[in-house]
Design goal:
single chain, alpha/beta, Nucleotidyltransferase, domain 5, 6-stranded mixed β-sheet, 6 strands, globular
Length: 284
């Protein structure tokens, strides 16, 4: 702990005791009473989806879906993130952004290594404690370019996999017959229009199963200060970093391994997620 902060007690406990966690988990699988599913999905990416340039230090594109049970998200995750901001900044208007934290830009200019480590460890603990399902796709741009001179758009390829896997998860939870909203961050008019067209094309049947997918896309500005979008932003890069440097110590990815949609359900968390909740394309 930073010596300067030793005398300052934490103002807010981040997570209250969740005595109903087991009952809540069981409730996830019940058919929702209305026309919307019990889940909300937040999406973000890491890396550049352009195939014209490939960064040799980060030659991948990563798309991540964070799937939250709405009750847990609204009652536990959002308050925990708000308390975290109040504790560290004195207000809750700061938007957490992985790149700015990593490069110590803007509001994230730490007083020293201890301050930085305390901040990141506490934020990692929030991700660890939050219950959400992670669905992600890593596009190896170097291999994709070697396969074809006219390689497909990495974002669109990753989007197809993630939406198909999301549908499989919702089928498992008896939620596939109602609408689920998928929230993505705005990037620009051209990119947003292209993404929306591809999203609706996939949902209209251009998917592996050839079926209608009951999803609706929502575009949001970063300034809306969405807790879900900020958490999605924080998880994408550790996935890409682990793919590029699998032998490097990566605490963030060790935490995320427990979140991936996997073949064995809750009893097999952290195992059986490759080619299930985490897709690598082209396949190694």
């Amino acid at each position: 702990m930073n010596k300067d902060n030793d005398s300052l007690p934490q103002q807010f406990s981040l997570f209250d005791v969740e005595s109903g966690a087991i009952a809540e988990a069981a409730g996830e699988s019940k058919a929702p009473p209305g026309k919307f599913s019990n889940f909300i999905v937040y999406v973000d990416e890491s890396g550049d989806h352009s195939m014209s340039t490939i960064d040799p230090q980060y030659p991948v594109f990563v798309l991540s879906f964070c799937v939250f049970y709405k009750r847990h998200y609204s009652e536990k995750v959002v308050p925990a993130l708000q308390k975290f901001k109040f504790n560290h900044f004195g207000h809750d208007l700061v938007v957490l952004h992985e790149r700015e934290i990593r490069k110590e830009m803007g509001s994230f200019k730490f007083t020293g290594p201890d301050h930085r480590n305390d901040f990141i460890n506490e934020l990692t603990d929030i991700i660890d404690t939050s219950n959400f399902i992670l669905i992600s796709c890593v596009i190896d741009k170097t291999k994709l370019q070697a396969r074809s001179a006219n390689a497909e758009n990495p974002y669109h390829t990753a989007l197809g996999f993630c939406l198909e896997t999301l549908h499989e998860f919702l089928e498992e939870k008896n939620q596939s017959g109602v609408k689920t909203h998928v929230v993505v961050e705005r990037r620009g008019p051209k990119e947003d229009n292209e993404l929306e067209l591809e999203f609706r094309r996939i949902c209209d049947g251009a998917n592996r199963k050839g079926i209608q997918l009951p999803f609706d896309v929502i575009f949001a500005h970063k300034q809306v200060n969405s807790s879900g979008l900020q958490l999605a932003d924080l998880v994408a890069r550790p996935i890409g970093s682990n793919f590029i440097r699998p032998d490097q110590n990566n605490r963030a990815f060790r935490v995320l391994k427990q979140k991936f949609f996997c073949s064995g359900g809750r009893s097999n968390l952290g195992e059986g997620y490759l080619d299930w909740g985490l897709k690598v394309f082209p396949s190694p």
